[in-house]
Amino acid sequence: MWPLNKNFLTEETTRGRHINSTRARSALVAEALVLSARFGRTMRLRVFGESMLPTLWPGDVVEIESCSLENVRAGEIVLAQRDDRLVMHRLLVRCGQNNFLLRGDSVACPDPPFPSQALLGRLVRRADERRGLTPSGLHPGFGAKWSRTVGMVLCHWGLARRVALKVHSRGKASARGFSTAESAATPVSAGIAERGVV
User: Fold this and answer.
1) What is the distance between the alpha carbons of residues 87 and 68, in angstroms, rounded to a whole number?
2) One-character DSSP codes across 156-167
3) Closest CA to 87 of 48, 125, 129, 117
4) Residue-by-residue DSSP string for 112-180
5) Are 122 and 34 in contact (CB under 8 A)?
């Protein structure tokens, strides 16, 4: 796995520099995914938007593997590039051989069609799951449909969206505080044993 520790998608800069740096970051991510595919690896990216609520939340870290349009099916979450932006939405349908449509779970309308070469990869898993559980909304099926239903409520009801984001951010902050306190209380020998050094 090749992690990207820097958040390539949210750095604030002046308007002109922001466009050029965003293009460069998008190109860097696209090239890194191609390289990772050659070595059979995945790449980690941090989510920053709200368009995939409740499946993906701002701050989530996801693993992406490179793939082609022929290897994905409707309902999977994919990463695509349009001009200077990276878009991680759910695949709706292929339009012929050369185009496909995407839509976020909490977005009312689909994105304009993407050409097949814009597809960079698909979401494999969330990398930051605390208990190793994978939410069912990440993959096609009932869970994805349920996420889309909840997403539409969050799309059209602003108060629900704000409350959900606030509750999620507080839960994440308290979980971070708990894991920090837990790791501080863990004896050093247990930490070494967990890493397989002993």
Assistant:
1) 16
2) H-HHHHHHHHHH
3) 48
4) PPEEGGGEEEEEEEETT-SSSPPPGGGSTTHHHHHHHHHHHHHHH-HHHHHHHHHHHHHHHHHHHHHHH
5) no
- 130 pLDDT band (50/70/90 cuts)? low
Encode pLDDT of 47-57 as tens digits: 989 999 999 99
Strands 114-115 and 43-46: unpaired
Q: Which two tokens mark 106? A: 């909490």
Strands 77-82 and 119-126 come out as antiparallel
Q: What is the value of pTM for the model shown?
A: 0.74
pLDDT per residue as tens digits for the range 75-112? 999 999 998 899 999 999 999 888 999 999 999 999 99
The one-letter amino acid at 165 = L
C-alpha 110/C-alpha 89 separation (Å) is 9
- Over pLDDT 70: what percentage of the chain? 74
Place of tokens 């050409």: 115
Contact 135, 118 (CB under 8 A): no
Q: Which domains does the chain have, with CATH numbers?
A: 2-156 (2.10.109.10)
- Could you count the other beta carbons within 10 Å of the beta carbon of residue 105? 26
Beta strands of 40-113 (E only): which ranges? 43-46, 61-66, 77-82, 85-95, 99-103
Straight-line distance from the first to the last Cα atom of the chain, in angstroms, rounded to the nearest whole number: 24
Pairing status of strand 43-46 against strand 2-3:
parallel
